[in-house]
C-alpha cells in the first residue's frame, strides 16, 4: 500500500504529510504535482491525500480553483472506482468543491482565521479513519483555517446522520458537544465527514500536526494508523 500526496501552488502541509506517512508510519509515500493528469503507479489499493494549505491563494473561495487542477479529474475517477481519498483542511474544502463530499466550508462565524488546539469527538468507528477509535473518544487536534464552517442543507445533514457519515464533531475536553466548543460555527459541530461508500474522507483539524511525541501530542497518529490498517485489510 502506498500514499500519494497532492501538491498545489500554496499547499503547505504536504511535507508534514510525507513525514508522518513515510517516516513515522513507514509507508511508501510520494508527491503528486497538481498539473499531472495521471496518478502514476498508484492504484485503488492505495490512498490519495489532499493536504492542507492555501491552494491558489484561496482565490474565489478556498478550494474552488484547485478543484479544476488537471490531477483532480484522475482523483475523482480514482474515488469513484473505490480508491481511498483523504482531504485535510484545504483538502477537505477541495473535495467538497469537487463534489466528492457533500456540503461546503464557509467563512468562520467570527470572520477570523483561527489557529489553536481544539477537541474533537469521534462519532463512529465505521470508517477507515476511525477504525482504531471508539465512538465518544476525544482527541486534541490543531485547527488552522479561515473557512472551516461546515454547512449543508437540512436533507444532507439528515442523510449524514442517518448513514453514520459524520466522523468527528467539535467538543470540549470532556467530550460535550456545545456552542462554546464550536469555534468556527459549523452546523452540528461537524469537524469531519465521509462519503456514503466510506472511501472519501474530509476533516478540518490537522492530525498530521499531532502525530509525534516531539510535538507533545500523538492524538492524530491514531487516525493515520487506522486508515493504513483499513486500506491494507481491504486489499
Automatic annotation (TrEMBL):
Which residues act catalytically here?
89, 206, 208
Q: In which pathway does it act?
A: Purine metabolism; IMP biosynthesis via de novo pathway; 5-amino-1-(5-phospho-D-ribosyl)imidazole from N(2)-formyl-N(1)-(5-phospho-D-ribosyl)glycinamide: step 1/2
Q: Report the SUPFAM superfamilies cross-referenced here.
A: Class I glutamine amidotransferase-like
Q: What CDD domains does the database record attribute to this sequence? A: GATase1_FGAR_AT
Q: Which reaction does it catalyse?
A: N(2)-formyl-N(1)-(5-phospho-beta-D-ribosyl)glycinamide + L-glutamine + ATP + H2O = 2-formamido-N(1)-(5-O-phospho-beta-D-ribosyl)acetamidine + L-glutamate + ADP + phosphate + H(+); L-glutamine + H2O = L-glutamate + NH4(+)
Keywords of the record, alphabetical order, are: ATP-binding, Cytoplasm, Glutamine amidotransferase, Hydrolase, Ligase, Nucleotide-binding, Purine biosynthesis
Alphabetical list of Pfam families matching this protein: GATase_5 (PF13507)
> What terms describe the molecular function in GO for this protein?
ATP binding; glutaminase activity; phosphoribosylformylglycinamidine synthase activity
The UniProt entry lists the main location of this chain as cytoplasm
HAMAP family cross-referenced by the UniProt entry: PurQ (MF_00421)
Summarize the subunit comment: Part of the FGAM synthase complex composed of 1 PurL, 1 PurQ and 2 PurS subunits.
In its UniProt entry, what is this protein called?
Phosphoribosylformylglycinamidine synthase subunit PurQ
The organism is: Neolewinella litorea
Gene that codes for this? Answer: purQ
Amino acid at each position: 500500500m502506498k500514499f500519494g500526496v497532492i501538491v498545489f501552488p500554496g499547499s503547505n502541509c504536504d511535507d508534514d504529510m510525507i513525514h508522518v506517512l513515510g517516516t513515522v508510519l513507514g509507508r511508501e509515500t510520494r508527491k503528486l504535482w497538481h498539473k499531472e493528469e495521471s496518478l502514476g503507479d498508484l492504484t485503488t489499493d492505495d490512498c490519495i491525500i489532499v493536504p492542507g494549505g492555501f491552494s491558489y491563494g484561496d482565490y474565489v473561495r478556498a478550494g474552488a480553483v484547485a478543484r479544476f487542477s488537471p490531477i483532480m479529474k484522475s482523483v475523482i475517477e480514482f474515488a469513484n472506482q473505490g480508491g481511498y481519498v483523504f482531504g485535510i483542511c484545504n483538502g477537505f474544502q477541495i473535495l467538497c468543491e469537487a463534489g466528492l463530499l457533500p456540503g461546503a466550508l464557509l467563512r468562520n462565524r467570527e470572520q477570523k482565521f483561527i489557529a489553536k488546539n481544539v477537541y474533537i469527538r469521534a462519532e463512529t468507528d465505521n470508517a477507515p479513519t476511525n477504525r482504531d477509535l471508539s465512538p465518544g473518544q476525544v482527541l486534541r487536534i490543531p485547527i488552522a483555517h479561515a473557512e472551516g464552517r461546515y454547512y449543508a442543507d437540512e436533507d444532507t445533514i439528515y442523510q449524514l446522520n442517518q448513514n453514520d457519515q459524520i466522523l468527528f464533531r467539535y467538543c470540549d475536553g470532556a467530550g460535550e458537544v456545545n456552542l462554546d466548543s464550536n469555534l468556527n460555527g459549523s452546523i452540528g459541530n461537524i469537524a469531519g465527514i465521509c462519503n456514503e461508500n466510506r472511501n472519501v474522507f474530509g476533516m478540518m483539524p490537522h492530525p498530521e500536526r499531532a502525530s509525534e511525541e516531539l510535538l507533545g501530542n500523538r492524538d492524530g497518529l491514531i487516525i493515520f494508523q487506522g486508515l493504513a490498517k483499513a486500506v491494507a485489510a481491504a486489499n
